[in-house]
Amino acid sequence: MQDPSGPVRVLLVDDDPMVRAGLTMMLSGTDQLVVVAQAGDGAEVPDLVNRHRPDVVLMDIRMPRMDGLAATERLRATPDPPEVIILTTFDADQHVLRALRAGAAGFLLKDTPPEEIVTAVSRVARGQPVLSPSVTRRLMARVAESDRDDRRGVAEGRLALLTERERDIAIRVGEGMSNAEIGRAVYLSVPTVKTHISRILTKLDLNNRVQIALLVHDAYDS
Known about the structure:
The protein starts with 7 loop residues before the first strand and ends with a helix. It is built from 11 helices and 5 strands. Helix 8 (164-174) packs across helix 11 (209-220). The protein is globular and about 50 Å long. It is an alpha/beta fold.
């Protein structure tokens, strides 16, 4: 859990030393963030997380021994894991979906402006996924078709565990609506919407609203 009185602690994971150096220089230029450790491969992540207790891990996808997808899945399966942001390019959409299903809080393109990276890391540390509605739709459109029917059945069964109100809110999360937009649409206050979303996450054993959106997509996308 992030210390609200201190900067966000960040672990950088990328096999390119130049990328790590650039990100370290950029992130160290703000009082909001501090880079506590670096790794050149996903296999190094568990030990560094145990030693340095980062709030957020910036994770590359392609690395030599253990890629960022496997490292994310392993890390998010541990007790009280840090949040994970995937560093990627748009040609890796399906890989990003795998990471999001594993519990990653979102992704950043490697050419994202520095101030946006700082803002995104800070948001994720506060429990707010960094995925815009337009990007969510683009990623969902790239889901592999081969197991769509199986995923639909599983997703429909899980959503059936929700009340009608919770299911309505989940669908609106899947449409990319903010809490304020959902509140206006269903005539609820923002705190009440947040309470419903927390209940949805607990009932469905999900990490964040991105995973709610993916579940809704699996259930209702034709």
